[in-house]
Amino acid sequence: MMKPNDDDDARSETTLSSVREESRDEKGEIEKKNQKENARVQKWRLAVTAMVLATAAAVTSITYILLDQAETKTFHTAYNQFSQTIGDAALQYHDGLRKSLEILSVTISTGASESADSWPTYHYPEFAPFAKQLLNLSRGEIFSSFNYVPKEERTGFEEWVSYNYQDWIAHDHMRVYGNLDRLDQNTSKFLGTISRSNPENKRERIPEVEKDHYYVRVQSQPPFSAYYPMFLWNMGVLEGADAIHHFKRGQYFVTPFTFLPMMDRNDHKSYHSKDQDGTDNPHSILWLPVHREPGNYSSDMVAGVDLIFAWDASMRFLLPDDVHGIKAVIRNDCDNVCTYRIDGPDALFEDLQDLHDPQYDEYRRDVTLVSYPEGAFEDDSGYHYNNCAYTMSIYPTKDFESMYKTNQPAVVATVVACTFVLVAICFYIYDWFVHDRQTKMVESAAHTNAIVTSLFPGECRDRMLDGGGDGKDGLSSFLSLKDASTSGDTSSKPLADLYLDTTVLYADICGFTAWSSVREPFQVFTLLETVYAGFDSRAKIRRVCKVESVGDCYVAVSGLPVPSRDHSTRMSRYANDIIQLFGAAVKNLETTLGPGTGELALRVGMHSGPVTAGVLRGDRARFQLFGPTVNQASRIEHAGQSGRILVSKQTADLIASTGKGHWLEAREAVDLKGIGTIKTFWVNVSRNKDDEGSTRDYETEASILSSEEMIIDDTARLISWNVETLINLLKVVVARRSATCPKRTPVDLRAAASEGLPLDEVCEIIHLPEPGEKTVTWQQPNDVVIDSAVVDQMREYVSCIAKLYHDNPFHCFDHASHVVMSVNKLLSRITTCDSNYGINSDPLTQLACAFSALIHDVDHNGVSNAVLVEEGTELAAKYMGRSVAEQNSLDLAYSLLEEPRFEELRQAMFVNQEEARRFRALVVNSVMATDIVDKDLKALRNGRWAKAFGEQAFTESPKDAVDRKATIVIEHIIQASDISHTMQHWHIYRKWNERLFEELYVAHINGRSQTNPATFWAKGEIGFFDFYIIPLAKKLQDCGVFGVSSGEFLSYAHANRAEWESKGEAIVEEYVAKFSAKYASCEV
C-alpha cells in the first residue's frame, strides 16, 4: 500500500511528466514547422536578393534625377534673381541720367530767367558745382551746356566770350577743386572746329559750315583744363546738336556709341572696372534742350545740355563677389552692339559684337533702356538724326551654370548604390547567423509557448493555442499581430465572437478624483487594490467575467464566455454585492487612508444586449468587449447615483422575466450623451428563500463586514485614523532614538513652557538636532512595537481632543483631521537631500507638526479673534486680545497632556527635558502661525522669511542659517495645511469653502458678527487667493524642500482661483439660498 507521501510524489511525477510531454510536443511542432519553412526561406532569400538589386538600380537612378533637377532649379532661380537685379538696376540708372539732365536744364533756365543777362550771352555761374553734384548722383561722366546762337548775333557773342572765358574757367576750377592746380594757364587754344569718329572709328576733322544758327559749348563739368575760347562754330553741323530742334518740346535723345576722349586717362579709369581704359569702353551722349521759360516746353529753345555716360556704369556693384559669369548684350537700332561680362562687382567690356553663348538663348531676358514715343519728331520725315533706341539682353554663361550644377548627383547616386551593395552583404551575413541561431531557439521557443499558454484559462486559452481557430500557426502566430500588419497577411483572424445575451456592468467610485488628489500614490493604490480584490473574489462566486479596471472604473460582464439565461439577475446580485463590499471596505480603510475615505461610494450602471468579445492582440493582449451595449452601459453608469444600481429598460425587462420584478423601481427618463432619452430603473436586490442557498457565502461575508468595527461613526473613524497617524510617527521617533541613544531623564511639561503667555514663547530660531550626529543605522519603524498602554492613552487623548472641538461647520475635528492629513502629505514630500534643512531627519519635528495640526483649533467658538475681543470675553482678557483662539487651543491641549492619566504617553513622546522643550517650541510656533490676521506675528514671519531666503546678505553661523530656514518652513507647512483645501482639487475646495461660509453666516444670524459674508465672499476669495494663498504656495515652491512636487499646491491654487473667478458669484448665491432656508427659523 502506498503511503500518502508516496501518492503526492506520484501525482507530482505525473504532473511533471505531463508538462514534459507538452513541452516535447510543442518543440516537435516548431521543428516540423521549421522544416516546412526552410524551402520557403530559400525562395524568399533569392527573391529578396533580386528585389534588393532592382531597388538599388531604381533608387540610384531616382536619386540622380532628383538631385540633378534640384540643382537645375537652383540654377534657374539664381539666374532669374540676378538677371532681374541687373535689368532693374539698368532701368534705374538710365532713369537717373534723364532726371539729372532734366534738373540741370530747368536749373539753367531758371537761373537765366532770374538774371539780368539774356540769351545767348548768358553764363550760369553755379554750373560747375551743381553739375558735379548731379554727376555724383547719376554716375555720369561729363555734363556740358551749349548756347543757341543765331547767325546775326555771332559777332557780339564772340566778343562776350573772349572777354569772360578765362575768368569763367578759373572760377569753375576754384568752385570745383578749390584751386587752379589742374588748369594749364600757359596754354590758350582756339577751337574753331572739332572732330568726330567715323564708322571705321578714325578721327576726322569736321569743317565749319555757314548756317543760320550755331550751338556753342559754354560750360563743362569737369571744367576745361586750359583756357579755351570755346568758339565751336561747327557744333551746329553735328546732327546730335541740331536734331533737338526737330523733336517735340521737352524730348531727349541718345546718340550711338561714341569713344570721345573727354578726360584724362588716369581719371577715366576710376569710372570703370579693373582699371579698364575708359576710352575703349562704349559711351553715349544724352541730349536735352533748355527752354527760355523754365518748365514751359512750348517756349523757345535757347540752349542745350548733354551728358556723356558709360554703359557699364549701370552694371557695376550689383552681384556678390562669389557670383560671376553673366553676360549683358547692349544693342540699338543704329546698328551698334557690344557685350559686357558681369563678374561680382565688376562689369567688363568684351567687344563690339554679340558674344553670348547661343545655348542659353532660352534664358534671355530683354530690358528696354531707351525708347522714343510715337511722333517724337516735329516734322514727318522720320529721320532719326542719330537718336537710337537701346535694349539690353541678359544671358547666363557656362561659368555661372557651373556654380550651381556640380557632380554631386553622380557622387550621391554612387554612394547609394554602394550602400545597397553593403546592405545585401549584411543581409547574407545576418541570414547565416539567423540560420545558425534558429536551431538554438527552438527549445527556448517551445518552453516560452508553454508558459504563455498558462496565462489564458479555459475556452479562450484553448482557442488561442489553436491559432485563433485556424489550427495552423499556434499561439505565437496568433499573438504576432505586428508581423501580420507589416506583411499584409490577414489570414490570421482575431479571436472574437458575438454574444447576443449579455449584461455589461460599469462601476465607478464617486468622489475618487478629488479624494486621490490629496493622497499619496501608495494610498490610492491601497484603496483600489483592496476593493478590486473583493470585486474579483465576488465575481468568481457569482460566475461573472471581469473585463478590466481602468483607474476607478470597474467593468464586468455576465453571459459570456459561457452563455447563461439568468445573466441579468446574476449581474444584479453581483452589483449589490460589490456596493456593500465597497461601503464596508472604505469604512475600514478610513482609519489608514484618512478622513473622507468613508464618504466614497460606488455608482453602478448596467445594460443588456449583444456584445462582441474576444482577445485584443498586441502588447499585453487582453480580453475586451465592444459594441453599443458597452457604450450604453457606460452612459447609464454616468447617469446614476452613488450607492445605487441603475439599469436600462432592456435589463429591467430581463430581470422581470426571471420573476424578480419586485427588485425594480422606475425612475424618470434620462438623457444619455450620444444615445438620447431612455427609460431607466433602480434595482434593489432583496434576498428570499429562493436566494438563500446561492447567497450563503455572501451572507457569511456580509456578517463579518457588518461587525461593530465596520459601523462606527465618522468621529470614531477619524479618531482611529489620527491615533494611527500619530503612533506611526511615534514609531519613527523611537526608531531614531535606537540610533542616537539619548539619556532618559525626568520630564516636566510645565518647565518646558515659559511663565508668560504662549505667544511670548514664539522663537526666532528653533534649533534642530544635527542630521549626521550618529552613524548608527536606525531601527526600521515597522519593527518598532509601541506598548499597548501608550496606544490606549494616545486613543484616549485624541478622543478628548475631539470632544473639545465644537460642532462648527468649519473649525471642527473633521477639519483638524484634514489639516493633519495635509501636514503628513507635505512632510512626506520633503526630499532626503541636504536642502530639507534637517526637517526630514528629525522625527520629533514631524510628530510635533502633526500634533500641532490636530490641536490648533481646539475649543474654537466659530468666530474670529476680533469678535472675541469685541465681545470682551474672558479668553480675550486672559490672552490680552492677541491670538486668543490659538493660545487657548494650545493651553487646553497641553493641560490635557499634563494630566496623570497620560503618563506613559508622555514618557513615550519625550525621553528628556530637551526633547520636551524642542517639541513645545515647535508646537507653539506652529499653532501661532495659524493666526494669519495678527499683524505683529505676520511681520515677524515675513522678517524671518526675508532673512532666511531673501537676497539681502545676513551674517550668522551656518547652523543658525539652516535652523532659521527649517523654522520658517515648518510654520509655512502648518499655514498651508490649515488652508490646504484652497490648494487642492476643486471639489475639496468647494466643500470646505461652503463650510466656512456657513460658519460665518451662522455667526452673523446669531448676532455675533455684524457683516453678512454674502456681501464680500465672492470678491473676498479672489483677494484671499491673490494676497495670501498664491504667495504662500510660491513660498512653498521657492523654499526648495519639496523637490519635483513643489509646484503642486501652486498649480491647484491658480486653477481654483480661475474657477472661482468664473463661478464665484453664482456659487455664493447658491450658498445664500441654501443656508437662508436651513436657518430660516434663527433670529438675529
Q: What features would you describe in this structure?
A:
- With 1084 residues, the chain is of the alpha+beta class.
- Helix content is 51%, strand content 15%.
- The strands form five sheets. Strands 15, 16, 17, 18, 19, 20, 21 and 22 form an eight-stranded mixed β-sheet that branches.
- A hairpin with a 2-residue loop joins strand 16 and strand 17 (553-558).
- Helix 1 runs antiparallel to helix 2 (127-138) and helix 21 (813-829) packs antiparallel against helix 22 (843-855).
- The protein is elongated.
- The model is unreliable at 1-24, 189-197, 231-241, 379-384, 451-457 and 689-712 (pLDDT under 50).
Task: Produce the secondary structure layout.
Elements: H1 4-113, H2 127-138, E1 142-150, H3 154-177, E2 184-188, E3 194-197, E4 203-206, E5 213-221, E6 226-227, H4 239-243, E7 253-254, H5 265-269, E8 283-291, E9 301-310, E10 324-332, E11 337-343, E12 346-351, E13 365-370, E14 390-396, H6 398-402, H7 408-453, H8 458-465, H9 474-479, H10 481-487, E15 495-510, H11 512-517, H12 521-542, E16 545-550, E17 553-558, H13 567-593, E18 601-616, E19 622-626, H14 628-638, E20 645-648, H15 649-657, E21 664-672, E22 676-683, H16 689-692, H17 696-705, H18 714-740, H19 749-752, H20 788-804, H21 813-829, H22 843-855, H23 865-871, H24 874-878, H25 884-897, H26 903-909, H27 913-929, H28 935-949, H29 958-978, H30 986-1005, H31 1017-1038, H32 1048-1078
Helix pairs in contact: 1-2, 1-7, 2-3, 12-13, 13-18, 18-20, 18-22, 21-22, 21-29, 22-27, 25-27, 27-29, 28-29, 29-31, 30-32, 31-32
